[in-house]
User: Which sequence fits this backbone?
C-alpha cells in the first residue's frame, strides 16, 4: 500500500538540472558557513557574559553548521583572528 505522500513524479514536471543542483548546493554551503560564523560570534558573547549553557549550545550549533558546510563542499571558516 502506497503512502499518500509517496506519489511518483509526473513526467511533465521539470527536472532540476545539474547546474541548478550545484547552485543550490553552493548556496546551502554558504548559508551553513554563515550560520557557523554567527553562532561562533554569539558563543563568544555568551562566554563573556557568563552564560555557559548558552555558550555550549551555540558551540554545538556552530559545529553542526561547520560540518554541514564541509559536507556540501563549502570552505572552512578561519576563526583564528
Assistant:
Amino acid at each position: 500500500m502506497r503512502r499518500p505522500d509517496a506519489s511518483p513524479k509526473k513526467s511533465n514536471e521539470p527536472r532540476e538540472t545539474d547546474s541548478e543542483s550545484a547552485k543550490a548546493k553552493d548556496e546551502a554551503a554558504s548559508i551553513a558557513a554563515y550560520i557557523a560564523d554567527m553562532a561562533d560570534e554569539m558563543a563568544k558573547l555568551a562566554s563573556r557574559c557568563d552564560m555557559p549553557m548558552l555558550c555550549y549550545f551555540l558551540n554545538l550549533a556552530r559545529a553542526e553548521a561547520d560540518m554541514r558546510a564541509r559536507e556540501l563542499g563549502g570552505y572552512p571558516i578561519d576563526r583564528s583572528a
Q: What stands out?
A: Residues 32-75 form one domain. The mean pLDDT is 84.
